[in-house]
Design brief:
The complex is a heterodimer of chains A (186) and B (409). Chain A is mainly α and 186 residues long. Chain A is built from 6 helices and 3 strands. Helix content of chain B is 15%, strand content 28%. In chain B, strand 3 and strand 4 form a beta hairpin. Classes of the chains: A mainly alpha (186), B alpha+beta (409).
Chain lengths: 186, 409
């Protein structure tokens, strides 16, 4: 019965909002559903990194130190120089985006270096995601950026320096103008 | 796989020809007498399955370098009816495989710019006030092959099979965000899955507060694993990959996270080398699903042209069908109910007199937007944009009745 009553309470809350007596978020009474996460629960899943660098884990590495991470964990799928595949090509393609054979790589297309760090930590290596240490993620990130000529071989990437890496295609994106095709011909 | 596909297609054509012949000629047919059954049929069973005579399947290409855990499978649109896609035939697109998730241990955490971060169990979500809505779901890469010319022998399943339509049941995201005390500074919501690659997309808070759902059921049963069991985000009318499956977390942010999927993928490259970012809604689109590529139509017979139309911006207002390559357009019959952001079934009856021609459909939605020709889209967006092709699909009928992809004809 307690369970059913909680459901009714939430429903009443939704109805009140719809009917116009709109409580501000802070005043909304709790329905009893859900529990506050513990710090540990949050730490396990709170992984995203935003372009300003929020969410980057402590640690550091450089291309020279990260090369071995790339060789061991990335090269099989992305090739010795990041250009060979068989999976996504990571290197090259700068200047190709406006041609009939555009090559979207980290160097030619990705607007934020933080995205690379986030994605490697989140999803790579493809078959064993989440197994790299923070230093290894910084190292693989640095090496891919180095192969693209974006950072120097011994530049150290960490929570402070990574968000400041300027990606070549940083200003290459525009907002959605659709509908962009004439509405009516006749 | 393809053998089955062809077989089911032949079976359909056989039925179609028989139906047409009856309508046109009204000739009595000689039918072999069916033996009266002398044995009992099967007993009741605990979980149903389709007739052993029905073989249609999703299509996926096994001969690419892409791992199948990162691949897509396509709905057999030519072999489905009405507007609801059977859950077992709903298209798939995974970025790191289908996880096996125990609903007893899975949770949804809402945190970030909220007054009360909360963790909801699946059971709690199933007990909260819910809604059920019928919505299409389309991958933004659907029909993408056509930007660069496509293939004359491709069929409706391979070209357009990344769209499906289901009844989804779940809890409005707005109610959950209010429950957590969403703060005024929150402008984006990061949605993240519990799959191996932790698929993640940023969603404007406006959409989240409008019609977004945390869905746990599809077509009356818990969502299938391929569709996000036990929880998925559902954003009506928006490109497929924003509808994050195996949803484990919603975090309120004051900026988009700029995840890999919303920067390096699912952005539309324009001829000048710039790319459009955050092209969320799927524009109005229609396709003739029968007859379509791979079919052969009979001369002198009456054919029911049928297909589906949908708009990520609302309700379909009109579907027109041409059978003369666009010289004239006929208003098709729409099957009710016509629902916002759902597949809409249309039909048009047509007698083919022989001779080469092109058939196609185009739709107009409640906003007044009319589905453009592919050439018009290419004129504005070039041939590199990869995603969001909602252009008219032309099917070319040859003098012998064989139908091929007519987009470049």
């Amino acid at each position: 019965m307690a369970i059913a009553r909680r459901g009714v309470l939430v429903f009443a809350l939704c109805s009140a909002t719809l009917s116009g007596s709109r409580p501000t978020a802070a005043q909304s009474p709790a329905s009893g559903f859900g529990h506050p996460p513990t710090a540990e629960e949050l730490r396990a899943i709170d992984i995203e990194v935003t372009p300003d660098g929020k969410g980057l884990a402590p640690g550091s590495s450089s291309a020279s130190a990260g090369k071995s991470v790339y060789t061991r964990r990335c090269e099989t799928c992305h090739g010795p120089t990041g250009k060979e595949g068989p999976q996504d090509v990571l290197v090259g393609g700068q200047g190709s985006l406006a041609t009939s054979t555009p090559q979207k790589t980290v160097g030619s297309y990705w607007p934020y270096a933080t995205t690379l760090w986030d994605y490697i930590r989140r999803a790579m290596p493809f078959e064993h995601p989440g197994t790299l240490t923070a230093d290894e993620v910084y190292g693989a990130t640095a090496y891919v950026l180095y192969m693209n000529g974006i950072v120097g071989e011994n530049d150290v990437l960490d929570q402070t320096t990574l968000p400041n890496v300027k990606m070549p295609n940083r200003n290459g994106f525009t907002s959605d103008p659709r509908p962009d095709v004439p509405l009516k011909k006749k | 796989m393809m053998a089955m596909h062809n077989r089911s297609r032949r079976r359909f054509l056989g039925l179609g020809a028989a139906w047409s012949a009856v309508l046109v000629a009204c000739r009595p047919k000689t039918v072999a007498p069916v033996a009266e059954p002398r044995a009992l049929g099967a007993a009741v069973s605990s979980y149903g399955s389709r007739s052993p005579y029905e073989k249609t399947t999703r299509f996926f290409n096994q001969n690419t370098k892409v791992p199948l855990e990162e691949a897509s499978s396509r709905t057999p649109l030519h072999d489905t009816y009405g507007i609801i896609t059977p859950s077992s035939l709903h298209f798939e697109r995974h970025h790191s495989g289908v996880p096996v998730i125990d609903p007893a241990t899975h949770t949804l955490t809402i945190h970030g710019l909220v007054d009360r971060p909360l963790v909801f169990t699946v059971n709690e979500l199933r007990r909260m006030p819910s809604v059920s809505r019928i919505y299409f779901l389309e991958c933004s890469g659907n029909s993408g092959s056509e930007w660069r010319g496509g293939s004359t022998d491709s069929d409706v399943q391979r070209v357009h099979g990344l769209t499906s339509c289901s009844e989804w049941t779940g809890v409005p995201v707005a109610a959950l965000l209010r429950e957590c005390g969403i703060q005024a500074s929150a402008t984006w919501l990061l949605a993240e899955g519990a799959d191996a690659g932790k698929h993640a997309r940023s969603i404007p808070i406006k959409k989240a507060m409008d019609d977004a759902l945390v869905a746990y059921a599809q077509n009356g049963e818990p969502i299938r694993p391929e569709q996000g069991y036990p929880l998925r985000l559902f954003l009506p009318g928006w490109e497929g990959n924003t509808n994050v499956k195996w949803l484990r977390r919603l975090k309120a942010l004051d900026q988009p996270a700029m995840t890999r999927e919303e920067t390096s993928k699912y952005t539309d490259l324009m001829p000048d080398g710039t790319a459009r970012q955050f092209t969320f809604d799927m524009e109005p689109k229609s396709i003739i699903t029968r007859p379509s590529g791979g079919d052969t139509v009979a001369k002198g017979a009456l054919h029911q042209i049928t297909g589906i139309a949908w708009s990520g911006r609302g309700t379909i207002a009109k579907v027109e069908v041409t059978t003369d390559g666009g010289a004239t357009w006929n208003t098709a019959e729409l099957q009710s109910p016509v629902l916002p952001r759902a597949h809409t079934r249309f039909r048009w009856s047509w007698g083919w007199n022989g001779g080469e021609t092109i058939i196609a459909s185009r739709c107009t939605d409640e906003t007044g937007y009319t589905q453009p020709r592919l050439a018009e889209l290419i004129q504005v967006r070039g041939m590199n944009s990869q995603y969001h092709n909602n252009g008219i699909q032309a099917w070319k009928i040859a003098a012998d009745g064989k139908i091929t992809n007519g987009n470049r004809a």
